Fold:
Amino acid sequence: MSTAEAERRAPIVGLWRSALAAVLLVGAVVVGAPSTVLAEVSGATPGTPRGAAATITAGGSHMCALLDNGTVKCWGNGIAGRLGNNDDTNIGDGTGPSVAASDPIDLGTGRTATAITAGDLHTCALLDNNTVKCWGFGSAGRLGTNATTNIGDGTGPSVAASDPVDLGTGRTATAITAGGSHTCALLDNNTVKCWGNGSAGRLGTNATTNIGDGTGPSVAASDPVDLGTGRTATAITAG
Structure:
């Protein structure tokens, strides 16, 4: 299947599957499934304390878990590098690697994640140094790299080699969220920046221009979303 076709079908075909997987995984982790279930996510030996997922997120046709050691594993449809494994091979479908056997995503030397979020064809992580890295399908600037190159699919940069999103001089992130083809970050000064597909005003810029794709403004150069005089944000979410 082509990347374009995958993007078209992802919200329809993948949503129910990812939502179901999310419900099942939440049940396994929060309610307290046997260690054998948790081990399938982390690769831990059944019966050992390792294996809990701290956070999970569902994309169009992929899932990711932030594990209890700050690493991230993703599984499902590997097209466009959304699994971050420098390949486009599916994980967890019986034809490619199992989730347990797959390696955590290499986020860069010494880096771990504190939060994760997934869009239809991309994934982002808030790292332990409050920077943001995104990988997967680069179209429309959703990765925030001022380009449309895929990251993590084996044809473009690896996740480890890619630079964090430049949020602006001195700015870091405290929360992230991904929509279908855009991403938003809550910054350390309680402002919000969004990048990616600008259609329908989803970036909050009073325009439909993409941000972060190399044709429109960069993320660093873009203004925060104007929330109103004197107003700041305490949380964000994207659809």
